[in-house]
Automatic annotation (TrEMBL):
Its cofactor is Mn(2+). Binds 2 manganese ions per subunit. It comes from the Bacteria. One of its GO terms (biological process) is putrescine biosynthetic process from arginine, via agmatine. This is Agmatinase. It comes from Jannaschia faecimaris.
Length: 319
């Protein structure tokens, strides 16, 4: 790269004029945005928005996921030089993708947060763009699902997780990262008969009708077989994909609040996600990346790779 070319590739998050294309500025410098996309709140002409939700006041154990979006953004700077492996297209080239920044909320008024997040996501969808969110703890999926359901109707859910997050909770005012999918089923936001949880390895006897492919079942099957089973369950229905990073074994993602051994490997997760190509994905998130518990940065790197795979899944049928 010529010296002048290198000088022109600086702070693409604020200087790039074309929302499409790869980026070649130094991964270790520059303004950090998701995949070096442009920071903007004006989504006119954009296809997809990536947004951060730095909220962790719903955790049952270790906090720290408020730092997840920032860490994922930093890690994502390693993935902008080349098209993603396996896919026959690059979402960074094929679509106008923006970094919409983070949701704003008063950390001292937790009860106000759900409405603030729902309005934030509705603002993205109302501008005609799709949305992929970076958490934050897993509670954030509930207001995000509410916003998507208002646009698309009841959704199918593909949930990668160590925990079902369907423990009973009929108090809608509670903000808890272990009960939000119970509420989502009970309020009709997601259809349990066309939803599936992958990687579960904690006990919750009542699945509410959601199909569970637990971690052992994943280990005993080929990734392609797991993906085919998931696709048969969700069909062509509007589908939301949520990936709790603790779906991965702590050996691959130690930086999370409630780690459980026996989880998926990074390779298994990557293969399953890629073999889900063709689903009708209308939105998604990656959650529970907690950088304080991983000094290596490996968990944030995994989170950034998941976001890339979600962008590919979202874009596969829209090329």
């Amino acid at each position: 790269m010529a010296l002048q070319d290198a000088r022109d590739q600086v702070d693409g998050a604020v200087t790039r004029s074309d929302p499409r294309g790869l980026n070649f500025e130094n991964a270790f410098g520059g303004a950090t945005s998701a995949f070096r996309r442009q920071y903007t709140k004006d989504l006119a002409g954009f296809d997809l928005a990536i947004t951060g939700v730095p909220f962790d006041q719903a955790v049952t154990h270790r906090p720290g996921t408020r730092f997840g979006p920032r860490a994922i953004r930093e890690a994502s700077s390693l993935q902008v030089f080349d098209p993603p492996y396996y896919w026959d297209f690059s979402p960074l080239d094929a679509f106008a993708i923006a970094d919409y920044g983070d949701v704003g909320f008063d950390y001292a008024k937790v009860s106000d947060f759900p409405a603030a997040l729902k309005a934030h996501i509705a603002g993205i969808l109302g501008q005609g763009a799709g949305c992929i969110a970076m958490g934050g703890d897993h509670y954030i999926s509930f207001p995000i699902l509410q916003a998507h359901a208002e646009k698309y109707g009841p959704l199918s859910l593909i949930q990668f997780d160590a925990h079902s997050d369907t423990w009973p909770d009929d108090d809608m005012s509670r903000v808890d990262h272990g009960t939000m999918f119970y509420k989502a089923v009970k309020t009709g936001i997601i259809d349990p008969t066309t939803s599936v949880q992958v990687g579960i390895r904690t006990v919750n006897p009542d699945t509410l009708g959601v199909t569970t492919i637990d971690a052992r079942a994943v280990h005993e099957a080929a990734p392609g077989e797991v993906a085919r089973r998931i696709k048969a369950i969700v069909g062509d229905r509007p589908t939301y994909v949520t990936f709790d990073i603790d779906a991965l074994d702590p050996a691959f993602a130690p930086g999370t609040g409630t780690p459980v051994w026996g989880g998926l490997s990074s390779g298994q997760a990557a293969a399953i996600l890629r073999d889900l190509a063709g689903i009708n994905m209308i939105g998604g998130d990656v959650v529970e990346v907690s950088p304080p518990y991983d000094t290596t940065g490996a968990t944030a790197i995994a989170g950034a790779h998941v976001v890339m795979e979600l962008m590919c899944l979202w874009g596969f049928t829209r090329r």
